Structure formats: C-alpha cells, structure tokens
Amino acid sequence: MFGWEFPPHIAGGLGTACYGLTRGLARGGAEVIFVVPKAYGDEDQRFVRVLDASQVEAQYGEAVVGDIWERVKFIQINSNLVPYASEEEFSAEGEAAKKSGSFRSGDVWRERFNFTGKYGTNLMEEVSRFAVVGAEVARQLAGQFDVIHAHDWLTYYAGMAAKRVSGKPLVVHIHATEYDRSGESVNPVVYEIEKAGMGAADRVIAVSHLTENIVVSKYGIDPRKVTAVHNAVRFSSGTVQAERAINDKIVTFLGRITFQKGPEYFVEAAAKVLKREPHARFVMAGSGDMLNGIIRRVAKLGIADRFHFTGFLRGEEVQRMFALSDVYVMPSVSEPFGISPLEAMRSNVPVIISKQSGVAEVLKYAIKVDYWDVDALADAIYGLIKYPALSDMFITRGQEEVTAMKWNNAALKVIDVYNDAINNPI
C-alpha cells in the first residue's frame, strides 16, 4: 500500500482514512505494508508495517522501470502546485527542493532519496522519485504481496511502477479528484497523473457514488472497474474533556482553508447569524492558501471579535475542539466524502453539511444545504444554537447513526475488491 501520509503526521482526512482502513484490513485478515515518503518512527504499527521510502536504496533508470520512467522523468520540477499549503508553508518548503539530474538512455543508478513527505515546492519531484521507490519496493518484496493499493494521485505512479515490476494487480483509491480541488480549472499535470493511474489500475475504489460518477464521466474509466466504498470513523478510546470559559454558543469549521472546503460561505453565514444572535462565536480551525483572504474578509465584515482562527489542529486537539463546539459546519464546494462530520457526530455535535458531499449519501441525521446558499446555512446554524430540542434530536440520532459506520465494514468491502482484482481481470 502506497500513501503520502500516516498518523500522527497528517495534513487532512487522507491520512486519517488510511489509518482507519489499515486497522480494518488487519482485523479482516489482511497484512499491510504501508509505504510513505517519510516515516518518523512514532506511527502506530500494531496493525500495519510502515515502510519509510527515504530508507530504501533504489535503482532507477529506463532499464529498471521502462515506460513508467519515461512518464515520471519529464514531470516538471518545482511546480507551484501546492494543494494543501499556505503561502508561508509554500515558501518554507522551497528550501527542501533537490537537484533533478539528467539521464542517458540505458543508464541505471542506485540512490537513497531524501523525501520530505510534505506538499511543498518540490512536490512533483517527490512524486516522481516515489515512483522509483515503488518499483524498488516491489522488486525487494517479490512474492510477499498479492495486490498493490495506491491512495490518491501522489502515489499512482508508484503503484504503476510496482505493478510493472511485480505483475500484481493494482487498486487505486480516489479520495479526491482534481475537479474537487480546483473546480473546472484543473491542473493538467495532476489530471494526467490521475487518469493514467486510474487507467492502469485493475480496480478503482471511490469514496462515494459522487466520486464514482466523476471518475467515469470526467476520466472515461470503465465503470466495471469502479466501486464505491464509503469511509467510516473512529476515535481513540477515552473522552477528551475541555473546559469552557464562556457561555456563548460555538460554531466550528474544521478543515483546509482552500477553495474545495468553501470557507468563504462559512464566513458569510457567520455574519448573517451574528446579526440575529450576537452571543455566538465562530471558529475556523485549519490552514491553507485562502487563509489570509478569509482573515481580511472577517475584518471587513466587522465580526473579528466573534471569529477565531486556531491554525491547523491534529489528534487530541481536534477532539478538544469538538468538545467545545455546539455546531459543526462543512460547507464544501465539492467533497468526495468528508470524515470530519462523522467525527463531530461521534463527539455529540450536530452537523450541517453541503449537499455536494459524499458523506451526504450516508447521513440521515445531518442538516444538508447547498454550499452556495448562505441564507439556508445561516438559518440552519441559528436553528441549532437557538432551539435546544432541535439540537438534542440531531445529537441523539446522529450518535446512533454514526456508531454503525465502522472501518471494519469498509475494509471487508475493500478485501472483496482485492479478491475481484486478483481473480477476475477486466
């Protein structure tokens, strides 16, 4: 299995989903070797073996990975594609970029790459080198695995290279597409990587039917290869306590502050709510390329004294934020799934989600609005903070609903996909 992040070192829902899925797979009888660009040594390896790509000495060149090398060696280095980074994070990552090197036909090298495993200025270079490591890992572990599983576009070339070397079936997992991240202004480089990975895969797993439809309609993938497997949720045992120093109701947005997540709609709705209920506070927890613009908009609307920015939260910080919240809002423009509403519901927080999210397919006890309908979003927030009976109903029913959504069940469906890829080639 190839992934770009693994808890506790995550940038969003991708790493959380990988962790939950690998735990479920282990309970379903699968053994998982999880390859990441950079491991830190504190990953939970009770259910999975985490392999650090930075510690793999790889041989590479056209003689080793053939046409895969032809694909990756021409990826533009130092691309300005930074889907998860703020402007400050982008600048800081520039120091990590390495030389690209030049290659002659037929040459083979051996080298250990120093991955950052982040989303910085040298992201595309790391994607290409991760493909080289993917081929080497497949060569070194020959005979020790039955299927290759690659999560999101960053790892698709690695999965393709591993398939070429081993001949084992490849499953790619779509947690988000370029259409989710960028709307119709897709980055052509990322789109081509996504399309190549899906085309080369023996099976494609989408996190929702919404994403499944995008894969088929926008990428032209054979629908017989595509299966929707919804995500699930888990929290570590124990309850996180958080002491409140105020009586105001707290409404929370938690996620990357990017176009995809719709943070501007949260701000506009907050301004409308505060005109009707001044004793409320709004929290935006996260980081991203839109953060500075959102701060300026909050100031212009005159609600800065009621609006708080926490920066990126992880682990227990997320649980503590939920413990302090009275309402959770996810106004995503395009959300393939969305694990955070499930986490909020597990924490007894009523949720409002956009109809344009995959999680809307499986939740009954969540208020659903169109992301662009700021008036409807403001009304929903106001209703949940002003009417305790309404909030209590969503809390009680939501807790019952989300408790049934387990990673073990999702993992069994993924194992079915593995078996189908192995036994029934398309």
List descriptors.
about 425 residues, four-stranded parallel β-sheet, single chain, 15 helices, alpha/beta
Summarize the structure.
Helix content is 42%, strand content 14%. It is of the alpha/beta class and 426 residues long.
Explain this structure to me?
The structure is a single chain. With 426 residues, this protein is of the alpha/beta class. The protein is globular. The protein has a six-stranded parallel β-sheet with strand order 11-10-9-12-13-14, sandwiched between helices. A four-stranded parallel β-sheet has the order 5-6-7-8, with helices on both faces. The protein has helices at 13-27, 62-72, 87-93, 123-140, 156-166, 178-182, 188-200, 209-219, 263-276, 291-301, 316-324, 340-346, 374-386, 388-403, 407-423, and strands at residues 33-36, 49-52, 57-60, 109-112, 148-151, 170-174, 203-206, 226-228, 249-254, 280-285, 307-311, 327-330, 351-354, 367-369. The chain contains 15 helices and 14 strands. The relative contact order is 0.12. Helix 1 (13-27) crosses helix 15 and helix 4 packs parallel to helix 5 (156-166). Helix 10 links the parallel strand 10 (280-285) and strand 11. Helices cover 42% and strands 14% of the residues.
